[in-house]
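Posted in: Structural Biology > Protein-Ligand Complexes

Title: Requesting predicted complex, NG1 in pocket

I'd be grateful if someone could produce the 3D structure tokens for the following input. Sequence and ligand are given below.
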Amino acid sequence: MISAVRPKCKESGHNSQRFEMKIDYDQLRKLYEDTCCTKNLQYSYGTAGFRTLAKDLDTVMFTTGILAVLRSLKLQGQYVGVMITASHNPYQDNGVKIVEPDGSMLLAAWEPYAMQLANAASFATTFDEFYAELVKLVEHEKIDLDTSAVAPHVVVGRDSRESSPFLLRCLTSTMASVFHAQVVDLGCVTTPQLHYVTNLSNRRQREDGHATVATEQDYYSFFVEAFNELFTTYQIEKRLSVPKLFVDTANGIGGPQLKKLLASKDWAVPSDEIEIVNDKSDVPELLNFECGADYVKTNQRLPKGLSPSSPDSLYCSFDGDADRVVFYYVDPESKFHLLDGDKISTLFAKFLSQQLELANLTDSLKIGVVQTAYANGSSTTYIEDALHCPVSCTKTGVKHLHHEAATQYDIGIYFEANGHGTIIFSEKFHQTIESQLSKSQGNLLALNTLNCFAKLINQTVGDAISDMLAVLATLSILQMAPTDWDREYTDLPNKLVKCIVPDRSIFQTTDQERKLQNPAGLQTKIDSVIAKYPMGRSFVRASGTEDAVRVYAECEDPTKLDQFCNEIVEYVKSSV
Ligand code: NG1
Ligand code: ZN
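-- Reply #1 --
Done. Output follows.
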């Protein structure tokens, strides 16, 4: 351990005299050689962390484990989270991402470190080349590796993939043995549960020096209580406004976790009102296969395992790690209607604006909706013109939306059209509501509703389970059927296609990804196509998670949509 200090990395040419790596060099070397089998692959830490074929992730897991420990040491030993998941990707894939102590995504300034360390291990011909990179990072961030004073703390979780237990061993191999980290393994959890537990563990430690780490059980208790409180506040009989909700859990981890929540002794809604389908999380190859949020959103049809029942029934689909949810229903003419992330954010915006108005707080608390360019144009018009709420547009990627929602609004509602989103309530929101309630001032029902609703939302990250409960509560309070929700506005016909190009990195954008700067001249051509289609809007950007360029198009006339989109695609193809 601290005894075997490596003498200043002589072989790697690293010549710092100031710095000593107080870790077991030989042990680290042995684990590196045993674990890092995948070599010469370039890794990039994108919006979703690292994500690729599971068989290629051993090296990345090893270095990400080290980085999580360093992040915790940098933050005085606070709990840092690590989630092993590839979300909606097929079962052969896997991935990993680091979570900050407050439950948000890894600080952007540390993403390059994640890549440097992974690529150093991937391309190094000797262990010392990798070690030199590690030393450089530790020095640069001035991290004290003397764990006798502060031990690093890490919370790890994984979704239901078959490859995850092996990858977990690669991830944690050095944590305790080399860095003396306290590692809490949550086992199989949803991504939002990992975020929630990481946040709660740190809050407990900070607020009352609580030595025990939070658990999955805390999550169930908290959200069930919040749901029940909201229903009690409203004195609604504990029945949903829809006769039945079918939940497609994509054969992922959302299935078993939702079942645990519904089995909580305090859960009061009759069990026959919610039915879970596609819950075979123990059959690896079924994960996200012809089901789940991504499948339903992309194909705009019912997933496997569901057939139309009554038009009053509501359906929803989670993705594989349950951080996204989309809703839908089928009308009496058997037509499928999608209620996606845009519809969820507009429902919440309508409900919360009403409550703010009832509580007479519209002047003191600012509510707003944050979207990306993928939001349907009709939703933006509806929020601005019908709800009179401000709308912000950010780049794709939850961290951008999250940041805007947290910094610009007291109630910042953000959702990507694909169903990933949440609501951030500011400190001022909590103080204002608390102060009004303590003085018993104003409309107590509205104040209590706002208070309870804020608890029902997982503010650390988009959460399929918590968002689903919040939608059910909102529909019940507003006494809305799925058709009423859908009727608030009508989506413009739209299309999203993938274009495979030799090098997607040449597609550089500006204006929150709505305009291309490069390839030169392409945007002018796109603009000339858009001008031909009434209510036309289109943009092109390189995907951050796939080796492709995405083309989005929407226009008034559904019969012209394919032609509109194809014209843009042709210009994209001819520009490379
Ligand atoms: P990319 O591949 O960068 O378009 C996709 C989604 C994002 C987000 C990330 C995962 C679309 C169009 N894009 O990003 O919204 O969910 O994956 O973090 O759905
Ligand atoms: Zn996901």
